[in-house]
Amino acid sequence: MMLRSECRSTPDLLPTHHYINHSVWLLVVLMLASHYVIYSQYILPMGARIEKLEASHDSCLKEVQRLITDEIDVYDADKTNSTDYALESSGATIVTTRCTKSYLEKNIQYSIDGLLPVFFTSNSPRVVIQPSMTPGECWSFAGSEGVLVVQLSRTIIPTAFTYEHIRKELTPDLHIDSAPRHFRVKSLKDANDREGLLLGEYDYDKDGRPLQQFKVQNPNPVPTRFIELLIQSNHGELQYTCLYRFRVHGNKY
């Protein structure tokens, strides 16, 4: 009797199972539909935006790389990324050295990469405003004090000066005692101006980088086309001082 009762009760449960199965499928369909809506409305547009961002990122990266390359090219051209208005090939000239005497001895020796000896020969003061930085290509004057007046390629308001000396590794005894140490820079009204306007007093560090830049210290520099460089001491050499590359930077006037 119990078996019959169980058999009779089984058909009564079928509608319930069908209802549950239908509900489950409906729930699955709704979940899939909601996922599709989320995917179509959010995921796909987000993917497109990501692709645009990646493309934009690549474009920005290329632009940054181009700018860096351009800056390196400009720096490599003159190492300062600033116009040199004292450059001879641009129109600047050496006007006078006042009474400074060139050192004519030929016993100053340098070396290239520590191997090939290069003997100093007397050079014109013009080498100071020329781009060559070959060992020995400097203006050597007697003693530790000297003057150089440069007529710039155009009238400017000075903002900075750069002095560059050869590396001490290029000398036989690994020192550059003949390099200038303390110096002053003035702006002049003309080549005959003996007073001038002091733009700053500086010290070249022989143990620092070969190329060192110095900002104008005078808060009120005036437009000028004449710059006077006054060397007041060197780093210990008693017979002579060697001047390599001197640059003048500023704003056009």
Automatic annotation (TrEMBL):
Compartments where located: Membrane
Entry annotated with the keyword Coiled coil: yes
Highest taxon listed in the record's lineage: Eukaryota
Major localization class: membrane
Residues annotated as transmembrane: 20-39
Protein name: SUN domain-containing protein 1
Start and end residues of each SUN domain: 91-253
Originating organism: Aceria tosichella
Signal peptide per UniProt: none
InterPro entries the record matches: SUN1-5, SUN_dom
GO CC annotations, alphabetized: meiotic nuclear membrane microtubule tethering complex
Keywords: Coiled coil, Membrane, Transmembrane, Transmembrane helix
Any GO molecular function: protein-membrane adaptor activity
Keyword Metal-binding: no
